[in-house]
Design a protein that fits this description.
Structural class: alpha/beta
Strand order of the largest sheet: 5-2-1-6-7-8
Low-confidence stretches: none
Shape: globular
Strand content: 15-25%
Mean pLDDT: 96
Distance between the termini: 23 Å
Length: 202
């Protein structure tokens, strides 16, 4: 049994002042840094969108951020333009210690499909390769931290549980967007999927 820490999208655009800022998003950075060296396997994810991505409200005339549209793969929340490849907004928060990362998974780079989960695109079929990497490293127990609880953290954790990993989400080291009740829904869905929700102080 090997423990892995999965650090989800601690990027400038999801922190205060960013294009899709999560309240208190920067507050979790010191706690994540302290946790990193306690895990033998450490993976970071990075939202990495091309300009004009199909999940951006700006790509849908007449639509506003947080509106829901139907895509080929199902319902999709529209977002402000964020985490555009190579931009400062897509960079990791400057205080996040990234050197300990064994692997960085970039997601959302396909223009036609968004990717919340660290394991699959939003079509629920196209894999990112993370599962295979973790299996090869012998990881069985995954702990998730990062941004945002109700989207990329939640989807990643639920996919991990469905794939048979033992999954914990450290809620004290996550922050949520909470759009239209999305945070409570995500917490309920994670619990139902068998994800352990921990509020252990950092």
């Amino acid at each position: 049994m090997t423990d892995a820490l999965i650090v989800i999208d601690v990027q400038n655009d999801f922190c205060p002042g960013g294009a899709l800022a999560v309240a208190g998003g920067d507050e979790i950075v010191p706690g994540i840094n302290r946790l990193l060296r306690a895990f033998p396997v450490r993976v970071f994810t990075q939202d990495w969108h091309p300009a004009g991505h199909s999940s951006f409200a700006s790509s849908h005339p007449g639509k506003a951020p947080l509106e829901l549209v139907e895509m080929d793969y199902g319902p999709q929340v529209l977002w402000p333009d964020h985490c555009i490849q190579g931009s400062d907004g897509a960079a990791f928060h400057e205080d996040l210690e990234t050197d300990p990362a064994d692997l960085v998974i970039r997601k959302g780079f396909r223009p036609e499909v968004d990717s919340y989960s660290a394991f699959f695109e939003n079509d629920h079929r196209t894999p990112t390769g993370l599962e295979g990497y973790l299996r090869n490293r012998g990881a069985t127990d995954l702990t998730f931290v990062g941004l945002a609880t109700d989207f990329c953290v939640g989807w990643s954790a639920m996919d991990a549980a469905r794939l048979g990993f033992n999954v914990t989400v450290r809620l004290d080291l996550c922050r949520g967007i909470d759009a239209n009740g999305s945070l409570d829904m995500a917490l309920a869905n994670m619990a139902q999927a068998g994800v352990k929700l921990s509020r252990k102080p950092d």
